[in-house]
Amino acid sequence: MLERRVELGFTPTPVRALDRLAAELGRDPGSIWIKHDDATALGNGGNKLRKLEYLCAEALEQGCDVLVTGGGRQSNHARLTAASANRLGLDCHLVLAGDRPDVATGNVLLDELLGAPIEWVGGLDYYPLEDAIVAAAERLAAEGRTPYAVPVGGASPVGTLGYARTALEVLEQVPEVDVVVVADGSGGTHAGLVAGLGDHARVIGVDVGTRPDLIEAVPALATEVAALAGLPAPVGSVRLDVERIGPGYGAPTPSCREALDLMARLEGVVLDPVYTGKAMAGLIAAVRSGEIAPEQQVMFVHTGGTPALFASSYAGWVRDG
Q1: If DSSP codes are grouped into helix, strand and coil, which group holds residue 271?
Q2: What does DSSP say about strands 91-96 and 179-184: parallel, antiparallel, or unpaired?
Q3: What's the chain's average pLDDT?
Q4: Which of 13, 101, 145, 302 has its CA 20 to 30 A from that of 39?
């Protein structure tokens, strides 16, 4: 099942040691690593291409002609779904929460450049937005199209296979890695890594405030994906850091800003304020608290998302922070 995909991104993505960050945190060289899933290339890169490789393969197998998906206004997943559709000669319909901005910035600008029609549905939460995606697909089917509905973040069992495969890639590149840290939005990346590594203890997900039931969704999805991939059921209990959300999804926090500054100024790596900044804040907190022990090697998955940094809502925060 792990081979049933269409190749959309450049993989394996590179890894390297973050030795200057490690020194700042009192760690030895070679103890903190980064995996650059922001370097998958298509559509400005990002982790969602891993999932879309499997989702698009299934859409093509089913003879679908339009991908339908959604997310928040600055959805990285929506951008990459539009790019994937263009690459494969499919149409794409995006359902985005919020109201249409007066000026397109960040991911919205890229969505418009990619040419995907956008349906703005107001301030919907996670599950009502999922319903809006299904409703849009049903409307397109009634018009004679053959849609393929992709859930928020691509976090279906099929999509999540992308990160079960990535976990095996991580082990080939740095076999000594003990713990992987990743941003947790819809939960698919976290669940796939757990399925591939086989143990919840080896993955720390940092909740960014997207999905209200991550604590139940991640282990259920990990078990389902492991079975789909022909892997043993994961052992242990889910590890989820829920202390980095701040006032809400996409809301800046001081610890996120510290993480952005440290990575930019020590390693030349740009993170974003919605996902990777908060995930790195979680890694830093886990190292400082001893949750990640000094002898453990940790891998940070850079899931992309830097277009959101160029959204107008963050301009003052970056300048004045």
Answers
A1: coil
A2: unpaired
A3: 96
A4: 101
